[in-house]
Amino acid sequence: MNEIDGNSVNQRNNYRRLIDFEVHNQMEVLSNQLLIKQKELEESHNRYVDLYDHAPVGYLTLDKSGKILSINLTGALLLNADPFILIGKFFAEYFTKIDHTAFSAYLQNAFASKGKTSIDLKIGDINEDTLSYVRLESTIVHDKDMCRMMITDISQLKRIINFNHDLLTENRRLMKELFRIQEKERRVLARELHDALGQWLTAIRAESEVIFNYIERESIIFSSVNVIKECTEKMHQVIRGMLHRLRPILLDTLGLPDALIELKKQYLLHHPKIVLNVKLEGDLSSLGEKFNINIFRLVQESLNNAYKHAKATQINVLLCREIIANATTDFLSLTIRDNGVGFDSSILSSGFGLVGMRERVITLDGRMSIETAHNRGTKIDIRLPLTTKK
Q1: What is the pLDDT of residue 390?
Q2: Measured distance CA(14)–CA(20) in Å, rounded
Q3: What is the CATH code for 253-390?
Q4: How many helices (H) and strands (E) does the chain have?
Q5: In angstroms, what CA-CA distances link 50 with 43, 74, 75?
Q6: For the whole model, what pTM was predicted?
């Protein structure tokens, strides 16, 4: 029995050692796995910290009072301070020229909002090379009562926008001056054609009449004089047409309404198959030179476009003066509608017709809209204030 008991003890000891060995191996495997996971977590954490701190934009969290709770390195660089120093400080204190009222209102609005809010905030002088404009985009974590904010330096973008705005303003000014000079040159040229060339043609026609009355009908000279008379008359018609295109005489003598009625007559004379309706409403007799000539040119260009490009058979023109109660400014409303082929408004036109019309409208501080579709005609709406900026 003692020998049997001894064998049982040895077996139990061996079994216990085997179990201890397996447990040790398992613990070692688990320990190695934990070390690997810990290393992966550390690497992931380091990557996150690197991405967070060195992101191209600033990330920070604020409380309702505007105090900084956390901030990454990029954000600290934008605020030009150490990130550890910034914690607990007011965000707005680090911009000397910030609009405090605008920032406070934005922060309150952000905490009151359920979605993302944003603002472009001026914090410096735009003409300097330093930080001058930032864009703030915020999302609120309501359960923690804090604001997650992204801050981006948009100073260069603002400089480009301002530069382009200045270029556009200068371009508008030059275009306005171009239209003024163009109309002045047209007026001078029309006067020269009327006073100089017109007088010479009148003299030629008068002299041909004298010769015509003093020669025999069977004479060769008679037929030549008759040809001269016909050529002179045709030249007179051509010059009258040129004068009307250069500078409508009725525009200077009787005003815009009569000039538009004459334009309608001339248009129908050259395009008899087109139905043209011109409707005038309100007091249009005292608009002044600037509006008279520009309205006339806008209608003239619209009619030319309707014939050349739209292939229209019917055109309706409505010009009216809108008087708004209790308003200091009247408005001119011009609508030109045709039943032509229309066009795709998403495709930029290679011509200058519509572009020139839009530029004229802009120089008068007005607005122009176009409605069109393939085979559904075109409608142009123009609205002009009668008191324009100088």
Answers
A1: 45
A2: 10
A3: 3.30.565.10
A4: 11, 10
A5: 10, 11, 14
A6: 0.58
